[in-house]
Amino acid sequence: MQKVREAAARISCGNNLKQLGLATHNYVSASGVLPPMWGGPTPQYPSTQSQFGSLHFYLLPYLEGAGIMSAAGGNSASAGSKNQPVKFFLCPSDPTLLGNTYLDPTTGPWTPTDYAGNVWIFDFRGTGDLITAMPRGTSNTVMFSERYKECKTAGPSPTAGQTDSVWAAFPSVTPNPPNPTMTTPGGLNSVAGFGWNSFNGASGCNGCLGAGPYYPDYVGTVSVFQTTPGITACDYTGLQSGHTGVMLAGLGDGSVKAVNGGISAGTWGTACNPTLVVPLPKDW
């Protein structure tokens, strides 16, 4: 029975990733550009977008969430949207969902997401299209990955060693940067062009490609990514999947790939970095 439930959860999770990919393609078809990782209409946060919100927020109309976007009144962090669960954002295999609500002691409930966007594809302006964003090819580039809603590691303070993947929040809202992205904690504010502190005058992600911590191809301190770790055993610097032995990855063409947990760091990093126009190694 347990295996049957796991198989059903994996199918559901894979379908969610497919819907995210399809929503992205439909967004591009309608607007001519990719949605931003975070965007807003104000001069302080330059963007081609007309509303203040996150990648997941901009995809809502293509995921049966037009009503949530409308209720938000132009701001994804408003009470009208931030606590509304979106079924396509939640993987039933994530053991950390805990009622599907993240309770922030200062700002109240936020609904999470189990799917992280690749900030090298979704930059902060919502520019470019699928082809220009993935020069190696959409079928060979990771556009979305899985990430636990919550990952905690023991530390000196309640928020040390912790990520909370909150889809409606901006990097400055929760105690730690919310991570609906394939970057490590702190990276959103630490790397030029990535974070909240870099929005003013940021040029998207063209200037923030590199190696090491805070980048989408960073493999964490424990492994490339973890499969089925417990909430206190997860590596908060990396990515997590609730599926045994695999990470489900949404590719740029809208397909979903079950990536083996034994994949090499170099191969995973190449698959995540759209600027590396090279063939993917055999273990992909």
Task: Provide a descriptive summary of the structure in words.
- The chain has one domain.
- Helix content is 20%, strand content 14%.
- The protein is built from 6 helices and 12 strands.
- It has helices spanning 2-31, 55-59, 66-72, 130-133, 187-190, 265-272; strands spanning 38-39, 53-54, 102-104, 108-110, 115-117, 142-146, 150-152, 162-164, 226-227, 240-241, 246-251, 256-260.
- The protein is globular, with a radius of gyration of 17 Å.
- It starts with a helix and ends in a 12-residue tail after the last helix.
In total, the number of strands is 12
Number of helices: 6
As a percent range, the share of helical residues equals 10-25%
Low-pLDDT windows of residues: 189-212
Strand order of the largest sheet: 5-6-11-12
Shape: globular
List the helices and strands and how they pair.
Elements (H helix, E strand, L loop, with lengths): L1 H30 L6 E2 L13 E2 H5 L6 H7 L29 E3 L3 E3 L4 E3 L12 H4 L8 E5 L3 E3 L9 E3 L22 H4 L35 E2 L12 E2 L4 E6 L4 E5 L4 H8 L12
Parallel strand pairs: 9-10
Antiparallel strand pairs: 1-2, 3-4, 5-6, 6-11, 7-8, 11-12
